[in-house]
């Protein structure tokens, strides 16, 4: 690491001059041996020459550069992810007024397609020539936007005008393009709403969808931090770094059906029964005996499930 200096000193006997580094500043005012003439002298700071000043300033700049480089090397994956999310939020906010203007009048799918392309480039970091194709032909039709890397499509975006409710027919359309192009990721959007799905093919039946996120860009909170965190999943870093895959599995693992099934499991009901009995006894000094079947009934009642 480059040294940092606080000034210059000189030997009283031979006149040899030395730069005083930060780590040796405690030697000022104390007897030391000159490395040139070997005599003893007491170092004090003196006026440096222009050359010495330049050398010390250069050393300081090198030290500062090394510190900055070390900081960059030490950035964690979490910090890099947060920086990316902040950039996405900032750039989507820049595009916000234009989207609001489009939404305020009768818009076409073409306007939304162009706006989405600009968002993909400026906010999410894609190259307009290397990664984005508009109106890509597949299945005898045109997918509005496809994202690709080395000619391999990895995500399809189906754009509609701002009045579209992005219903099941739009999802089916995007899913059909995704399957036809060999990818499992599909987005439906009217500019205002962005919905990301994982499309899973099933033998003997239609595809299954996992909704990864549903983002509204013109709601009361505008482009919130939560919105930016979701939109981050569309970025190259998330797609190719595993964050998108991870979030998809998290959503699939914690869907309502699986959560309810877990709550009905023998292990959960037993743990809940023991917790209810122990906490009640600790509070009221009275032992209540419960069975798992009763706890299951009370759980359904507490969650409002018994009315369904």
Automatic annotation (TrEMBL):
It comes from Leptolyngbya iicbica LK. One of its GO terms (molecular function) is endonuclease activity. It holds the Pfam family HSDR_N_2. Residues 109-204 form the Type I restriction enzyme R protein N-terminal domain. The keyword Cell inner membrane does not apply. InterPro entries: HSDR_N, Znf/thioredoxin_put. It comes from the Bacteria. Keywords: Endonuclease, Hydrolase, Nuclease. This is Type IV restriction endonuclease. The lineage of its organism: Bacteria, Bacillati, Cyanobacteriota, Cyanophyceae, Leptolyngbyales.
